[in-house]
């Protein structure tokens, strides 16, 4: 309901300011701790201030999601990050967290076999040998490039279907 007020007073009681005291990563091999820390705390400050290390549950979740996404883009398609331990001091606000990282295996695209099917013509096959790091982003880019190429050749309704065969993991 509409309310008219001439004066409004708020009383704000300061609570505990929670900040990252320590962040530990377990299972992180393909990235430095400093790079991984950047997903959780501000980097580049000359003085290590608490305000740059603010802890929130949503910030922790975003940091873990971002870390896992970066690992996936590096070829670790099954990468995950989760909280292994979380200790929060309600007196001082210090938060100590251990993040378990499961990188999994790294995936590479060794070859690409394309099959082009045009109405009324026999299918055309070709194989491209490559050694690129696989990620879902790479897969989207590759599919978009195929659609764009075929669009330019007069096939605007081109669809791309990608099937993975012979999925083999590499060791870094």
- What is the H-and-E element order? EHHEEEEHE
Distance N to C terminus: 62 Å
Mean pLDDT: 87
Secondary structure tally, helices: 3
Note the overall shape.
elongated
Helix content: 10-25%
Q: In angstroms, what is the radius of gyration?
A: 25 Å
Question: Helices and strands: which structural class?
Answer: alpha+beta
Strand order, largest beta sheet: 1-3-2
| Stretches with pLDDT under 50, minimum 5 residues | none
The main sheet comes to: 3 strands, mixed
Beta fraction? 25-35%
Description:
The protein is built from three helices and six strands, in the order E-H-H-E-E-E-E-H-E. The protein is α+β, with helices and mostly antiparallel strands and 172 residues long. The chain starts with 18 loop residues before the first strand and ends with a strand. The model has no long low-confidence stretch (mean pLDDT 87).
Provide a short characterization of the protein structure:
This protein has three helices and six strands; from the N terminus they run E-H-H-E-E-E-E-H-E. It has helices at 33-37, 57-73, 136-152; strands at 19-26, 80-88, 94-102, 106-116, 124-133, 169-170.
